[in-house]
Specification:
20% helix, single chain, 7 helices, 9-stranded antiparallel sheet, alpha+beta, 3-stranded antiparallel sheet
């Protein structure tokens, strides 16, 4: 038996999350995150017009967020077996239906959305901006009650805008805000952070070791990570939907989400996709007095376009694009920079 002792560290010392308070995740950089669980339409149920409507709804919702915010959408695709419910009041046909699909494998989908408010001082942090070099340990804007109230109001408008897409009686997106117990877990039920680190979405998920000696290993599972962060890696054309050849004919097109090959059509059994979307204000230059009125007006017009305008979602039904991005930031991986509540 080898006597070599591998270096180890506690998860608490490496995690970026400081604590969970009032149904919010608070990081060690004083960032505040609100988490939601989303219910999306089933695959093969939307038309081209529906995909375009979802895209417009998401773009409209993102523009409601204040500056220095990040939207993180995470999709889990897990192979599962159908577990029917044999209630006593079921009819003969419904019972036969449940028995027909009993323990049949299917691809289960879980979607989570995180909205983070970051400090306006974050872009100015560098190698010399340690705690001793800062005037305040906690950024002043993160302690401003009015700033945080405005952020929560914007998040509420963001969610309501997403839920307003589709028919009034049956919206395409349904959301549920995660509570502190659903994030950190309880003695009887595992929380989202515990499930994330164990790569297990069951309520009885147990914590496992993270091994980084030869790649990334979570318990007995080996993880492969892929990222798209270069414009050259993105396709030339970005649309809300594409033609699905297996179900399309010569005369009819069957639409599917543009990012479906990264999501429900992917081969691995269990994985998650992470998509980050930043909204940061552009620096406005001082206009020259010799410029024309039209040019001056264009400089004083505030352009709150996000720095990353391509929001590629690998959900089971859709994609949220806007246009070919100046920068892409999409990663398909298993674990990421999430942490467990202390």
């Amino acid at each position: 038996m080898s006597s070599k002792i591998l270096p180890s560290a506690s998860l608490e010392s490496k995690q970026p999350i400081y604590k969970i308070e009032k149904d919010c995740l608070i990081s060690k950089n004083a960032d505040v995150t609100v988490a939601f669980r989303l219910e999306l339409p089933e695959i093969f149920t939307l038309s081209r017009e529906d995909y375009a409507q979802l895209q417009q709804g998401f773009v409209k919702a993102v523009r409601l967020l204040p500056d220095h915010c990040a939207v993180h959408k995470q999709d889990w695709f897990v192979e599962d077996k159908y577990a029917p419910g044999f209630e006593a009041d079921r009819t003969l046909l419904s019972s036969a239906y449940e028995r027909h699909f009993f323990e049949r494998p299917f691809l289960n989908h879980f979607c989570y959305l995180f909205v983070t408010k970051m400090s306006s001082e974050r872009p100015n942090w560098g190698s010399t901006s340690g705690l001793l070099a800062r005037r305040n340990i906690v950024p002043k804007d993160m302690l401003d009650k009015k700033v945080m109230e405005a952020f929560f109001d914007n998040v509420g408008q963001f969610v309501r805008t997403l839920e307003s897409v589709g028919p009034t009686n049956a919206p395409y997106i349904k959301s549920h805000r995660l509570t502190s117990d659903e994030l950190a877990g309880t003695a009887e039920k595992a929380g989202l952070l515990e499930k994330y680190f164990a790569l297990n979405l069951s309520d009885q998920a147990q914590q496992v070791d993270l091994d980084l000696t030869s790649g990334l290993k979570v318990g007995q599972q080996f993880c492969n990570m892929f990222s798209v962060a270069n414009l050259d890696d993105l396709p030339l054309g970005v649309e809300s939907d594409i033609r699905y050849e297996p179900l399309s004919t010569e005369y009819t097109d069957f639409p599917i989400s543009f990012a479906a090959p990264w999501g429900c059509c992917w081969a691995p059994a269990t994985f998650s996709t992470n998509t980050c979307f930043w909204t940061t204000p552009r620096k406005r230059s001082k206009p020259s007095s010799r410029r024309r009125t039209g040019s001056i007006r264009s400089h004083f017009t505030r352009a709150r376009t996000p720095s990353t305008t391509s929001f590629i979602s690998s959900t089971s039904t859709r994609r949220w694009p806007t246009s070919a991005a100046q920068r892409g930031c999409t990663s398909t991986c298993s674990p990421g920079r999430k942490a467990r509540a202390s």
